[in-house]
Amino acid sequence: MARRDALLRLHKSLVSRRSDIRKKLLDELDGLRNLRDGDATGDSADVAFESGSEEMASQLAELDARELQQIERALQKLKQGSYGTCESCGCKIPIGRLNALPYSTLCIGCQREMEKYPDWGEHYSSGNWEKVYDSATLLDEPREVDLSEIEIDLPSNR
After folding, report:
1. CA 13 to CA 10: how far, in whole Å?
2. Which of 42, 43, 49, 109 has the smallest number of Cβ neighbours within 10 A?
3. Are 28 and 61 contacting, i.e. CB atoms less than 8 angstroms apart?
4. Residue 20 forms part of a structural domain
5. In what helix (H) or strand (E) does residue 8 lie, and over which residues does it extend?
């Protein structure tokens, strides 16, 4: 499979995952509204349990929202033609890594460096994506990408 085909498959996967997360977030929001609007009957243990459930649901929704942001960013990078390129060193991110984590922004080497030296990439570890930018956006020029020129990293058969 060519890298182009793999990227098209990843795009489909990202769109599907985005749809799933959006539906899940809407369901969780409806569930929280129903809990809040429901009767507050019961003893203090019931109230404590409901409070803990709301807190857990809220934290899970926050994780889903973060993943949704990363997926949206990956889809934007696909449109710009910069998807699959490490934001630190500019090398191509192997398809295997993108299959495992489709919204990955760093190659394995740069990710290891970031994990080994947390201060190495403050703008990555803080989660503030405002500090990250693409060179194409600086030029305000649309960048055309020929997907047939993109290579694939195939595992070697030993």
Report:
1. 5
2. 43
3. yes
4. yes
5. helix 3-37
pLDDT digits (tens, 9 = 90+) for 147-156: 555 555 555 5
Between CA 24 and CA 30 the distance in angstroms is 10
CA–CA separation, 155 vs 157, rounded Å? 6
Q: How many domains does the chain have?
A: 1
Token code pair at residue 155: 């595992």
What CATH number should be reported for the domain holding residue 73?
Answer: 1.20.120.910
* Residue 158 placed within a domain: no
Q: Which residues contact 50 (CB under 8 A, 6 or more apart)?
A: 35
Q: Summarize pLDDT for 7-38 with one digit per residue, the tens.
A: 889 999 999 999 999 999 888 777 767 766 65
Give the whole-angstrom CA distance, residue 82 versus residue 137.
11
